[in-house]
Amino acid sequence: MITPEGERQSVILRAQGAQQGQLLRAQGYAAALKSIYRAEQTIDQKTMTLQYFETLKKIGAGESTKYIFPLEFTSLLQNFMKGKEET
Hints:
The chain is mostly helical. The chain is 79% helix and 0% strand. It folds into 2 domains: 1-42; 43-87, no CATH class. The protein is elongated.
């Protein structure tokens, strides 16, 4: 039979475990964001534009008939075309 004290201890241990799990997830998330930020520092505008083109190619292969483009996409295209004109 579980005593009230045993039940209390069980609740405390579960809460501590949940707290530790949340802390570990937050630390993992922070480490992932740092890694993404470091990688982003090495990517130039043309690389990002090429990634967008690759994504568009995959989207275009689908059956959808409507597409929404983020506003940033047009500025990426302009930057890419400027680079093309210089070469």
